[in-house]
Amino acid sequence: MNQKKNMETAEIWCSDIETIHERYNQRWHIIKMHILWPYLFVQKKDHDRYLQWAIAAKFIDPENYDIFELNMIKLKNIELLEEVLHALKKRNHSITFLERLLDLLDKVDAINCDLDEAVAMIEKTEEINALQMEVKSGTGRSRMAAIAIGCFQYAYFLKLFMCPENLPHIVPNIDAKSFLESEDCRERGNKEFKKENYEAAVNLYSRAIDLSPDNEILYGNRALCFFRIENYKKALGDGKRAIILCPAWTKGHYRFCDALFSMGEHKHAIEANAKAQELCRSDPNGIRDLIQQKSKFVRLQDESNHSFICLKKMSISNSF
Question: pTM of this prediction?
Fold first, then answer.
């Protein structure tokens, strides 16, 4: 009975993709935010199945579960999950793939399996295991862990979308009073920023985020404050949060790339900038800023490489 229902769910989902593309894109964005939320936005208090899997995969450290700062290890884990989600998105038109995935989720639910058991199920299912060919990041174990976490959470939300009233809200609907208070904090934060009182601006933007945690502009503003006081890990975290909330917002990408470059991740920053230009191509003014940023990165990287070569030559000559 479940198998028949899963086939119907897969058929409906694929039919919606073909007929209501805009609604599908909105659904996909919601699913992606749900999956990445505990890694970037809110520390979960209840250890559900997928948080337990993330801990088992060492994507989350339960002894130091801090989502505020973003170091390169955490970022690479998040980007690995994003790579899995991108591979999944390309298979959204396949009824067979989705049906197999939903069938596997039923098995996971039936035995409440751990991460290793979930990975073993995927490895025995040709259609799902083929994702390994597209996901290039990470080690063999981390890659399979990310595939399991991404696939089964995606299947879970796919089922929920068949009854949208059951879909949990990431952020409670903000009331008028909270919205106005958040806007007031943002405006006061802007004033403090203009006066170069960056710490005060951070506090005000943080208060605004508490009231409106899905407003990408607030994260972008706070990221710039962190950048100005050279707290690049926190700037990186806020830049990434802004991108997740609004993938086509150029300023979020700009903040994220600036933080990466300032952390010495030059190659990663240039690659992220190229990706940003692709995602933000409908914003010509923003694209211009990103092009200028990339030119700056390339120039500074060339200067850094030249300085390193000169120092190396000096070291060699002084050794004789």
Answer: 0.91
